[in-house]
Every structure is written in structure tokens, then in C-alpha cells.
Amino acid sequence: MKYRVFVTLKSGVLDPQGEAIRHALGSLGFDGVNSVRQGKMIELDLAEDDAARAEAQLQQMCEKLLANTVIESYRLEPV
Fold first, then answer.
1. Any idea what the CATH number is for the domain that residue 48 is in?
2. Which of 12, 31, 64, 77 could form a disulfide with 4 if both were Cys (CB 3.0 to 4.6 A apart)?
3. Residue 54 CB partners (closer than 8 Å, separation 6+)
4. Are 44 and 3 in contact (CB under 8 A)?
5. How many separate domains does the chain show?
6. Neighbours of 67 (CB within 10 A)
7. What pTM does this model have?
């Protein structure tokens, strides 16, 4: 089973990379961008056939390695 994991900073956490992107877009003439939040997407292909077990494994992966749950949130999406 293939899944995508989207990891983003939690609301209220400063995003200096997002701010740098917003500033660069403004420098390129894209003046209508008020804010940018950046994150990462990780695609995994699991050998597990059961969706519930796959999602449980993915949650453990996110909690232990893929996301810093103190400052980041994650979302799972089947592909």
C-alpha cells in the first residue's frame, strides 16, 4: 500500500523558511502572497495489505521519526 505523509509546522510555530519563500516571491513580482507555510511530503510503499494496520504503522513511524510532534503535525493520505 502506498501512502503520502504530509508534515507541516503547527499553527503558531514560526516558519522562517516559509517567510524566506514569501519574501523571494515578492522580489519576483508576486506581491499578493500574504504568508507561506512550508512542509515536507514523504511517500512510502508498505508491504502491509490491511489499511488499518498500515495506518497504525505509519502513525508510529511519524511519532518516532518522520515528524517532530512537538512543533509539527502530520497527515496521512493513501495514494
1. 3.30.1280.10
2. 77
3. 1, 3, 46, 48
4. yes
5. 1
6. 22
7. 0.88
